[in-house]
UniProtKB/TrEMBL annotation:
GO terms for molecular function: acyltransferase activity. This is N-acetyltransferase. InterPro entries: Acyl_CoA_acyltransferase. Gene3D superfamilies: 3.40.630.30. It comes from Euzebyella marina. Keywords: Acyltransferase, Toxin-antitoxin system, Transferase. The keyword Acyltransferase applies. The keyword Acyltransferase applies.
Length: 203
């Protein structure tokens, strides 16, 4: 099962957790600020739900945290080649203009708990495997074909999602910049990535 499910407990990340735990530090200023200061407002505005795993032997330590919300992939907004990539595993008679997805809005792992079981099965991978399993579980009350994420356009973040099977929704930054309407000289701060859950559902 791994460290995360054997040695940690899943909890809603709320004010009670924030008040009772040490400050969560995933070594990223923007993420740290969100998890310390914005979680409650984000939830109150119905923009997303945040969860965390705390350490069983010391529940004041938040090992990792993530925020999820509803989303979709609208293929009508994609270049034809990228549309084909998204729907390649979907039977032709099931083709739609929009496909249900869950958005990972924020995700972080405490800097001291990243590699408790080595590089290949580290905490970040276990966390992503857990999130994926939520949405292919038979008890899930809604359809969800994809996981999407607006990843920081930074080598470490992009490498993490690539290792976990995510692909770029757009083939190049130029293509994504055109889609988002940004000027050519503006560097993308994030990249849109997706994971097709049917890969796991068919296993």
């Amino acid at each position: 099962m791994g460290f995360l499910l054997e040695s940690c407990t899943l909890k809603p990340y709320n004010q009670e957790v924030i008040d009772g735990c040490e400050p969560f530090d995933c070594d990223h200023p923007d993420l740290n600020d969100f998890f310390r200061n914005d979680v409650e407002n984000y939830s109150a505005e119905l923009l997303g739900k945040t969860y965390c795993f705390t350490l069983d032997e010391d529940p004041s330590i938040i090992v990792c945290a993530f925020t999820i919300s509803n989303d979709s992939i609208k293929t009508t907004h994609l270049p034809n080649s990228r549309k084909k990539k998204v729907i390649r595993e979907i039977p032709r008679e099931k083709h739609m203009r929009s496909y249900p997805a869950v958005l990972i809005g924020r995700l972080g792992v405490h800097k001291d708990y990243r590699n408790v079981e080595g590089e290949e099965d580290n905490t970040g991978k276990q966390l992503m495997d857990f999130i994926k399993s939520w949405f292919i579980d038979g008890a899930n009350k809604t359809g969800c074909r994809f996981i999407v994420v607006d990843s920081y356009n930074e080598p470490r973040a992009l490498r993490y999602y690539a290792k976990n099977g995510f692909e770029s929704l757009f083939s190049t930054e130029e293509q994504e910049r055109e889609f988002t309407g940004l000027p050519d000289e503006v560097k993308l701060s994030t990249r849109l990535l997706f994971f097709d859950l049917i890969v796991l559902a068919k296993e």
